[in-house]
């Protein structure tokens, strides 16, 4: 089996037993990490990479991204949630073909690799046909990224005689098809789960049916809660049924969930994905981060929509951290007339949300999210001699508060370089750029509406 030794880097492991090593080595054997120590000998025939002047850390886990929107980058920059739902889901999304989903997912995944993400949770809710679903999965597999593909459902306006999307459960036969034919093993780089509507956006019987399907197939079930609940007591009723809400249940946003309901969900082991930037822009209310911290809830973070904002996890992590600190300071000022006496959320905790927190949300914490022997070798190297990082006094603070995509020198997934010496290891990238641009232009022409659509 091949060996790779990363030698002399600053190791930020995110593993409590290993911690941060000012200088250390990481030995990779095949797809897995074999050893981490201040100094290791290279096995015979091993490739040795000089990691001096580099931070070696777990790759980011982007816990929530609608990758199919990559070709529409920036169009939602000034939209509220009401404008977004009308223009994107009832409008632009209806003009996508399978080839549009493919190119968006491929270039979106490559963009995530380029920025240091090694695991992407792809919340795919524009797949009206099996061809669109297969195209999205094909693209993720082609990119080389580790991904959890969440099969969702589109949200167009119903035509005459059709049910509203809130009354339609996920298609069992299609979920069973991809589970049987596309996801034959949970050891693959790309695995599957469900992107369900949940009681925030569907009637109770649909929420129940979708969660029963997730439990039957042992899949993560993720749902949006981005406004008033369609079924106000839906979570309480689902929890009362037993076994439907648990560690494989994921709530995205959830800003307006009532305190007692939030406590109930945390007690049942549900995970939560915060996308602070889009939540603040689109009028969701206060991000859940601080309330979850007080309850001991499981927090992950994601970029959400490239149609609205940046998708790199450096920006996502920084925004989530400073938003949480800001809200704590507002609460302190309101209560005492002055800000907190000490920082309430440390940088290391935010990095946990962006690594191990996301891995837990995806059910992959046993594989990724930290650097430790026997875990998958999903890691990134950051250049510390770039002027925006140099000099590094505290590597975790530097990652969270100074670093950016330009510092990502190399990216490995399952021990394989996907980016090296600053360049993606993917051919025909220019042709993919052109295809993405053409896709976005065609969809916008077909939509034929101004970007500020409100209807």
From TrEMBL:
Family annotation (InterPro entries): Amidohydro-rel, Metal-dep_hydrolase_composite, Metal_Hydrolase, MTA/SAH_deaminase
* Pfam families attached to this UniProt entry: Amidohydro_1
- Mind listing the GO molecular function terms for this protein? hydrolase activity, acting on carbon-nitrogen (but not peptide) bonds
The similarity annotation says: Belongs to the metallo-dependent hydrolases superfamily. ATZ/TRZ family.
Protein name in UniProt: Cytosine deaminase
- This protein's source sits in the domain of life called Bacteria
Residue ranges annotated for the Amidohydrolase-related domain, each copy included: 55-417
